[in-house]
Design goal:
heterodimer, A: mainly alpha, MetI-like fold, 84% helix, extended, B: alpha/beta, Rossmann fold, CBS-domain, 6-stranded mixed β-sheet, 4-stranded antiparallel β-sheet, 21% strand
Chain lengths: 445, 368
């Protein structure tokens, strides 16, 4: 047999294998040799008989959990036949034993293959555990003891004690915590009333101005301006698209609402820009700040958008200003992220050159970093606009009005046609803005 | 011996050095100070420092002086610390220890404001990857240094045009850098470095990324410019040929240590160690080795031939000056039967026989 070894495995590899195997070396040397010669499957009797314990002892946890799962399935079937009160216990007993034997057999057949794969991984990083270990076998045993009996009992016994079926809940904890949050919100609302009021006032002022601009301007002027903008930024294709989209908005009676939505989106994106861009700059410069900011941005982006309505209503009551704020929270993360990304992407050699010519940090920011980050910042603005528009319907829930309200209204009154038309209007608003901004970016570069 | 080398002699003034580095150390890593102390007290090697302190030695005890108007090359392979060393001159990198003097100023002692002023007014820099601002035109790029110093727009753009004319880029002012070829971009980089008319030029492998033909063109153009501008230049390169073509003197770096400083001829004829010798091996000596290195003293020659000094009739012999290169000596040897007499101020100081000439071309220790 050792002669056979030397044909394909060199001495060093054999030594390595012995280090890895520790016990039953002869058997595994032979098996690994066969695997490397292309015979992929052979039955490992120890693995078949001892199942998960063999896998645990050899540190192959994938096989451990596979075998444990099939074991439990088989045991549940056997358990149901023994005390489940079935009419034909013998047949399900046979089924259970069949499953057990079959799955253990499969386990035994793939065991050597998996063990060989593990050896290849171990060769790369020899710090990993190897050989056979009683400690791991014990861990495997404890895991089996912790999972098998309860699971088998739960599924096979005719009636089960209550606390196994449902999690022992404490309603008190939940309600007390919620009350505490309520109290905190109340306290904040009262103590910072002036602050919240002034924020509301400022946003309302901005919105009023924008609405006056968008809705107050006669529609032919507004349409002409948008078409000119499209032509300047993106060429005649986008002009055709914009003109048809505007015609749709007009003929289907969405003009005023679309303009009101645009005003809302405009206000939100403006706030996103003036808060988000500086935050992005700071995040790009300070790893510590960005370490704090990043989880918050993740939270802002993952949180279902409806949840933003809660604090918005709590602090700012209903109406358009809280809708703008909820939209801002939802739409700001990409603005911050893309600003930071744009600044970080500026090549270090450019920064070095700026330094070498005596630039101050401020000059570096304004003369190199920000101009070079403009495409990325524009992408951030675009993202913010799209996210603001996607928030339009949700914001309508707290009185944002505009196109979102139409969608909401038809949802409540089951008017599918009207709802879809309003939805299409929102999509067209988004596309007009997107095409104009993207066209502008492409022209710029 | 070095004072005899042809390119240099006449151009130096004897004032203070324009740039001086005194025992500069740069160690990268959080425990750089500890590592430096350990190196100084215990003489640890680079690898030991890396193991014990997790620090990397970038520059080890570098000292050199660059004279006013001199082109000083620092040659070394990648990772030898040459780029790190040059960044100490304008303090893009702070040294762990040691002093850097530029003219009267101790660079490490400056505050941020003074440092920015020195960088803007005294030291121009050219980078390997040009590092031009892609969103600005060529003209605006060249004017950058002046803009940072708040020179008014009309004036700085006018200066930029002048400098672009110097590097033969007139007509390209309003292009964007990406529209230019690599060699042209690097010339823009050079014009930008010269825009503020600094006394010192730092050139960090400026021609390394270019293809050989363009590189040679730029080297020639730079040599031309250097002769007119007379700027003190620190020129970094990994190419010994380039260093020899361009430099008055060359410092050779290996693993952060300056192994040898000397004129091209000194480096070629007397490499300090095997490492330098390995580099020098393939360099053609014909234009770099001079008569004074290969000649034998007149007395030895006369003794050998049992001649008296008055027998040496200069009319019979071909003559050459001490700084005639091997190329010229070969011409003389081909045309004349007799050995060449080397003159210093009209008086014979040495003789180059055919044997000495061939040994000199060979360069195998024939000249001691």
């Amino acid at each position: 047999m050792n002669n056979l070894m030397s044909q394909t495995l060199d001495h060093k590899e054999t030594e390595q294998l012995k280090d890895f195997l520790v016990s039953s070396t002869d058997y595994y040397l032979q098996q690994f040799e066969r695997i490397s010669q292309g015979q992929k499957y052979s039955l490992n009797l120890a693995a078949a008989v001892f199942g998960p314990f063999w896998a645990a002892s050899r540190n192959i946890w994938l096989l451990f959990w596979l075998l444990a799962a099939t074991d439990v399935t088989a045991l549940v079937v056997i358990g149901q036949s023994l005390w489940g009160g079935e009419t034909h216990p013998e047949s399900s007993l046979a089924l259970g034993v069949g499953i057990l034997v079959f799955c253990r057999g499969i386990g035994g057949i793939i065991a050597n293959r998996l063990y060989h794969d593990y050896f290849n991984k171990w060769r790369i990083n020899q710090g990993q555990p190897c050989g056979i270990s009683s400690k791991r076998t014990l861990v495997g045993l404890l895991l089996v003891l912790a999972t098998y009996p309860l699971t088998v009992y739960r599924f096979s016994a005719a009636s089960v004690v209550d606390y196994l079926e449902t999690f022992p809940t404490s309603r008190k904890i939940a309600s007390k915590t919620a009350h505490a949050i309520d109290a905190a919100v109340d306290w904040l609302t009262i103590s910072f009333e002036d602050l919240f009021d002034s924020i509301t006032w400022a946003i309302r002022g901005m919105l009023d101005f924008l609405e006056l601009l968008f809705i107050g301007t006669p529609w032919p002027v507004m349409a002409l301006l948008l078409i000119l903008l499209a032509w300047k930024a993106a060429g005649w294709r986008v002009v055709i698209f914009t003109a048809s989209a505007l015609a749709y908005l007009g003929f289907f009676g969405f003009w005023d609402k679309a303009m009101s939505t645009m005003a809302l989106v405009g206000a939100s994106v403006f706030i996103c820009l003036i808060i988000g861009a500086p935050l992005g700059i700071v995040a790009a410069k300070s790893p510590r700040f960005s370490a704090v900011l990043n989880p918050m941005l993740d939270l802002m982006q993952t949180m279902p958008s409806f949840v933003y309505l809660i604090p918005a209503i709590a602090f700012f009551s209903v109406g358009k200003p809280p809708a703008v704020l909820a939209t801002v929270v939802f739409a700001m993360p990409p603005m911050i992220r893309l600003t930071a990304l744009g600044i970080q992407q500026v090549s270090p050699s450019v920064i070095e050159a700026m330094l070498a010519f005596g630039a101050s940090p401020r000059q570096i920011l304004f003369k190199a970093e920000l101009p070079l980050a403009v495409p990325s910042i524009m992408a951030g603005i675009n993202q913010s606009i799209m996210m603001s528009l996607s928030m339009v319907v949700v914001a309508a829930l707290i009185g944002a009005g505009g196109l979102g309200y139409d969608v909401l209204f038809s949802l409540q009154h089951l008017e599918a046609g009207k709802g879809l038309l309003a939805g299409l209007a929102i999509v067209l608003c988004a596309m007009i803005l997107d095409r104009i901004i993207q066209g502008h970016q492409k022209r710029g570069s | 011996m070095s004072s005899l080398s042809s390119k240099i002699t006449t151009e130096y003034s004897t004032q203070n050095p324009a740039i001086e580095c005194r025992n500069v150390w740069k160690i990268f890593g959080e425990r750089a100070d500890e590592a430096l102390a350990a190196i100084k007290s215990r003489g640890m090697t680079k690898d030991e420092v890396h193991q014990e302190f997790d620090c990397v030695v970038g520059v080890a005890d570098a000292s050199f002086q660059v004279r006013e108007g001199e082109v000083f090359c620092i040659m070394g392979l990648s990772g030898s610390g040459k780029s790190t060393l040059v960044r100490h001159i304008n303090r893009l990198i702070e040294p762990t220890d040691g002093d850097i003097l530029v003219g009267e100023d101790n660079i490490n002692g400056l505050n941020q404001k003074e440092l920015r002023r020195i960088r803007a007014e005294k030291i121009g820099m050219v980078f390997q990857h040009t590092a031009l601002l892609p969103h600005r035109t060529v003209r605006e790029n060249v004017a950058l240094g002046l803009e940072l110093r708040d020179v008014d727009e009309q004036q700085r753009l006018k200066i930029a045009e002048e400098k672009l004319a110097l590097v033969h880029l007139t007509g390209w002012e309003d292009r964007m850098p990406t529209e230019l070829s690599g060699g042209m971009q690097q010339r823009v980089g050079l014009a930008r470095a010269m825009a503020a008319d600094p006394k010192i030029l730092l050139m960090d492998e400026p021609f390394s990324a270019l293809d050989p033909l363009i590189r040679r063109q730029l080297q020639d153009q730079f040599l031309e410019l250097a002769q007119v501008m007379k700027k003190t230049t620190l020129f970094i390169t990994h190419d010994l040929d380039e260093a020899i073509r361009i430099g008055h003197r060359i410092a050779i770096m290996k693993d952060g240590v300056i192994v040898q400083i000397g004129t091209p001829e000194e480096i070629i004829t007397a490499p300090a160690d095997d490492y330098v010798a390995e580099f020098v091996k393939d360099i053609s000596r014909l234009k770099l080795v001079f008569a004074h290195t290969v000649m034998q003293p007149v007395e030895d020659y006369l003794d050998d031939k049992k001649l008296r000094p008055q027998d040496l009739d200069l009319n019979d012999y071909p003559t050459a000056s001490e700084d005639a290169d091997l190329d010229h000596l070969i011409d003389l040897a081909v045309e004349h039967e007799k050995p060449t007499v080397v003159l210093n101020g009209g008086a014979p100081v040495g003789i180059v026989t055919k044997r000495q000439l061939l040994r000199g071309i060979q360069g195998d220790g024939s000249n001691e």
